[in-house]
Design brief:
- By secondary structure, the protein is an alpha/beta fold.
- The protein has one domain (2-201): 3-Layer(aba) Sandwich (Rossmann fold).
- Helix content is 57%, strand content 12%.
- It has eight helices and five strands.
Length: 204
């Protein structure tokens, strides 16, 4: 069983990954964004470092999926490989922050990877408005996120919403984190778990 949690920066992916892993007794695979050696440079000069950043993330994400498929045990994954290409790289290209040459090269590599791996059994998308994202980002106080631009977050949201609407790789569940505060209210977490059970097992 492979559940993958998708969502914009600050939407609560890591928090929900941990909560669901604890509830089900499954292994959690967390995104280690802090370890990306290009992250600080990227936020200071997005155009210069966008391709390097995205290739690093794509490489790490593929390694994570290979590990999931080899483990043969239930795993909950913090962020999907789809987000790297369909949201972040696409957005950087549309904003003129990644050249068409680099983007075409990147997408070719991504498409090859997609032909070699299986999709998650369930994708959970954490949908959030920009004010919610900004509030969550400020709360966690990561230094390298301090310079994230509002227009960048907003464009990412547009790509996320378009991607999840068109996603056909498998089952999907959308959680509105503007109203469902699973990290604050136990009843909201129970609501999410009920929804996950319904998707995975057909329980109502």
């Amino acid at each position: 069983m492979h559940i993958a949690i998708a969502g914009n920066i600050g939407s609560g992916k890591t928090t929900l990954t941990g909560l669901l892993a604890r509830h089900y007794g499954w292994e959690a695979q967390f995104e280690q964004a802090d370890e990306n050696p290009y992250l600080n440079d990227f936020y200071e000069d997005m155009e210069r470092w966008s391709f390097n950043l995205q290739i690093y993330f794509l490489n790490k994400r593929l390694k994570g999926i290979v590990a999931i498929q080899e483990a043969k045990k239930p795993i909950i994954q913090d962020r999907t490989i789809y987000e790297d290409a369909c949201i972040f790289a696409a957005n950087l290209h549309s904003m003129g922050l990644m050249s068409t040459r680099d983007y075409s090269n990147y997408r070719s590599l991504f498409d090859l990877m997609m032909s070699l791996i299986a999709p998650p059994d369930l994708v959970i998308y954490l949908k959030a408005s920009v004010p919610t994202l900004v509030n969550q980002i400020q709360k966690r106080g990561r230094e390298y996120e301090a310079g994230i631009r509002i227009d960048y977050l907003s464009k990412l949201n547009d790509y996320y919403n378009g991607w999840i609407d068109e996603y056909t790789g498998g089952k999907k569940l959308i959680i509105d984190v503007d109203t469902v505060k699973f990290n604050e209210r136990p009843e909201d977490l129970s609501h999410v778990i009920d929804k996950v059970n319904a998707e995975l097992h057909g329980l109502f």
